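pasting input
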Amino acid sequence: MTATLIDGKAIAARMVEEVRAEATELAAKGWAPRLVSISVGDVAAAELYVRNQQRQAEAAGLAFEARNYPETISLEQLTGVMIGLNADPRVNGIIIQRPLPTHIPVKALQKAVHPLKDVEGMHPSSIGNIVYNDLALGPCTAVAAVEILKTLPLNIEGLDVCVIGHSEIVGKPIAFLMMGLGATVTVCHHMTRQVAVHSRAADAVFVAVGKPGLVTGEMLKPGAALIDIGINRVEGKTVGDADFESCAKVAGWITPVPGGVGPVTVATLLKNAVLATRMQMDHYSAAFAVER
Amino acid sequence: MTATLIDGKAIAARMVEEVRAEATELAAKGWAPRLVSISVGDVAAAELYVRNQQRQAEAAGLAFEARNYPETISLEQLTGVMIGLNADPRVNGIIIQRPLPTHIPVKALQKAVHPLKDVEGMHPSSIGNIVYNDLALGPCTAVAAVEILKTLPLNIEGLDVCVIGHSEIVGKPIAFLMMGLGATVTVCHHMTRQVAVHSRAADAVFVAVGKPGLVTGEMLKPGAALIDIGINRVEGKTVGDADFESCAKVAGWITPVPGGVGPVTVATLLKNAVLATRMQMDHYSAAFAVER
């Protein structure tokens, strides 16, 4: 192995420290950040994830309320819940846990979250604001992947970047976040004729597809940075989309899975929570001209 | 010259026919589409443009009201005007004419337009919806450029596409419109090290920078499609971003400037107007459950 291993946990820890300081400052102004998590139905698998999220939020000084609604709730009722949370000044961020029952389309629910409380960065206007280089609340995984690249000693302006995977909440947002930073970006996906032609020309490769072993060492330029966003279970182990062994021999930097993008994604959610709280505070102050 | 010249006027004429039919149908349901154009200050140059827009809208069967506000209007007053237009069911689309006085930031005004009346496709949530492949109202120039490519006998799935220029309302939206159609897209810009490396590998090149002669024949793959979105004045003539003579010798298809993307952009605005009117009709029907 020649690649330097990127320590996602250390990057996340630094971000959480910043979040904690910011949360303390906001609390002193009467704006202690508070997240509400919405899950629907009996989702045992998600429960562990939510509890973990809650633990990390509270460790960073954010209040976290986990709500669970019965499987039988309608989209209209749930939209009503959202309207209530949007209007409640004590709620600063709304997290919609997946999976949702099939009668609740996740996009419809995401659109019901007020953009200022959209800590997951999923609302169409949050996505559009990223395109406009107004980098307030972005989708957590995409923002995390880019934050990781920014820690490396690379000049991003003019950097040739290949993004493999063009999902709406990971691949595409990474693409225009990187464009906004001045990189030359190529986005590949399942219809791309030869992914290796593009990946081998790139100084940095992001992969977010969900296929273990998709990226191999021979698809990389020697010394390139490889940010692996995939999370797959193979023979009881969690692995990314890269064939770690062969990639680590060619890449200059590589993220492990687990311990790479994952922890930074959670830290980004918490960072979004304090950002959202600050935006709401500023919005209230402007709207009501209250001195705080 | 070996390239086939793409006839933007003919494409626009077909689109306008569809708009006219759709407008007639909407009018029969009590929803005759109506556009309101907002310009601010004494803008002689823009006036000709607005009058031309009005003529074309009316020829397509759309009502068009051109409003001019004095230079002295504040952002707050203009936002108030927008709120009024948003609430008025007789207004289906709002066009903000540029240039605006420096004390009126165009983005703030665009955000004040209700997304369902955003016929220019500039609101962050309109942009975000494109990213989400929800291709309702897109930015006119980007949509027009893509519509032109779609008229060519090319299989867009897997097509290698190079977009030169990464502006928020042209280059980037073209990129994800093309991604949504299955193309492999590379976005180049002023920080890209070697644009020719990317453009020469592409089956289709979009250029939207505003620099005459930027793309030359030797930067193209023989037989590629070249969609030229630039509009520049050179020695009293209107030219695009491509060196037409050398490009036409190499490309398979090429858009002229003028007469290429320009007329299709105007037709796209009109198409957005009938789309917006239909969305508003559907929205009202759903909200008030009125049989029409």
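fyi DSSP finds ten helices and eleven strands in chain A.
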